[in-house]
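Reading a protein record of the kind used here takes only a little practice. To see the layout at work, look at the sequence and tokens printed below.
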Amino acid sequence: MYTQWIKDMNPDKILLPVKSIINARDLGGYEVAGGLHVKHNMLIRTAHLADATDKDLQYLAKLNIAKVIDLRQEREKLGKEDRMIPGAEYVCVPIDAGGGTAAQASEEEREKLIGKKKFDIRKFIMVAAFNEMAQKIGTEMYPTLLFYSECQQQFALLFQQILNTENGAILFHCTQGKDRTGITSALLLAALGASRETIVADFDFTNQIYAKDVRKFSRRVRFMGGKEKEIATVKAFIGANTENFIKALDTIDERYGSMEAYLKGPMKLTDADLQTLRERYLE
């Protein structure tokens, strides 16, 4: 259903012209209900800003970024703290994609996966591929993000941060700009009246960005003896599992009746909030 959408999405036209910020995209231009479109340069999704060059930051500053919302946990920032965009307020709304599984992990297990001094996503992926807890987190990631109560509370807080920003653009990101950032983008697009096709296409576009990395790390894991389960974990932590994401959207409909009911339920958005978002970000 959404495959043609993806084929028509040209990375050169969608990605922002920044050198060292991965998966940097503007939600502007997406069509929503009523023939309206998301305004350009108002809702920006990216990976972390730790490696941003001075020119990258200057470019983002020109977009009038009023607030940067970092969805990473403190451990993920070790050695990878964001570089600041001039004029932007920095807010942290940490979301743990591991949910209850990660919460039950010992400090030793967490350090084995994430490290003590500096978080290295490449090392993490190679360790995670053969780690039973990480395999479980990778399989359950999207249901966790959308239905685990602590995650829902943080996403609701994120919406309030956006609603409280009356002027200027919002930039939101996690580590790779794909799972927590992808869910944030999906919820925002849904709140603005985008179709499921548009929401899924935006989510899946991440796989074009990370396709080479998925192949590279999959080869490494196979060389180390990894089988189907280990390769699936690599794909979960590097790419975006669109099939699982769609299943999670279906579960929202089953549990809540509709995406709008979900937004008004655990996301705590009122009709007035939805109207505010649409007036602010649509044209």
Notes: The mean pLDDT is 87. The CA atoms of residues 139 and 254 lie 20 Å apart.
